[in-house]
Specification:
Radius of gyration: 17 Å
Protein name: Crp/Fnr family transcriptional regulator
CATH superfamily of the domain at 2-122: Jelly Rolls
Number of strands: 8
Helix content: 40-55%
Largest sheet: 4 strands, antiparallel
Strand content: 15-25%
Low-confidence stretches: none
Number of helices: 9
Order of helices and strands: HHEEEEEEHEEHHHHHH
Shape: globular
InterPro entries: cNMP-bd_dom (IPR000595), cNMP-bd_dom_sf (IPR018490), RmlC-like_jellyroll (IPR014710)
CATH topology of the domain at 2-122: Jelly Rolls
Structural class: alpha+beta
Pfam families: cNMP_binding (PF00027)
Mean pLDDT: 94
Strand order of the largest sheet: 1-8-3-6
Length: about 190
């Protein structure tokens, strides 16, 4: 557990260092949790109960539309936060699914615990707001990529941002994430020098 909390502290400190007393309160709300491969942790239509901190494994957030088309929106892997963040923070039904792509190990905490600390500890509130702002910035960058870049440019940007992603995530999910047909993704793999 100590090693997992050390990973969490490193990520938190990169967002905004907390005073030791606030870090101790923040660390105390996390509990170990594990899930098998292809386990759905959040179901669309249900409230997101937990905020996850990924210690091991790979997960994705995805969406199904009315025609049963699937869109992979986000991948999470160690060390990072995971879950359906908007549904967690707003405590509204999720529009998305959160599933494991491999056996996964987490720390997780509940909304009530996070909200209580945000209301009583200004440093934790600021750190969480800054973390959410960084996430929003990443979403806006991704929107630009999807709307302005060619499929090859999107692929190159993904590899530059996460060079190890090809070893972590099955290619069919990467193709879906990039909005590329699986056949074209295979061609891109052969064309782009990695």
């Amino acid at each position: 557990m100590e090693e997992k909390l050390l990973q969490l502290k490193q990520v938190v400190t990169a967002i905004r260092p907390l005073p030791e007393q606030e870090w101790q309160q923040f660390a105390a709300i996390w509990k170990p949790f594990s899930a098998k491969r292809k386990e759905t942790l959040t179901v669309a239509g249900e409230r997101e109960q937990y905020l996850y901190f990924v210690v091991e494994g790979v997960q994705r957030v995805f969406y199904f539309d009315e025609q049963n088309r699937e869109a992979t929106l986000v991948f999470t892997y160690a060390p990072s936060f995971g879950g359906v963040l908007d549904a967690f923070m707003l405590q509204q039904p999720s529009r998305y699914f959160y599933e494991t792509l491999s056996p996964s190990s987490f720390l997780r905490t509940s909304c009530n615990e996070v909200q209580h600390l945000m209301q009583t500890q200004p440093g934790i509130d600021t750190m969480i707001r800054e973390g959410i702002t960084h996430s929003l910035s990443g979403v806006l960058e991704r929107l630009v990529e999807l709307q302005c870049y060619s499929s090859e440019e999107r692929f190159r940007v993904l590899l530059k941002r996460s060079p190890h992603i090809l070893q972590l995530v099955p290619h069919k999910y990467l193709a879906n994430y990039l909005g590329i047909d699986a056949t074209n993704f295979s061609k891109l793999l052969n064309k782009v020098r990695i």
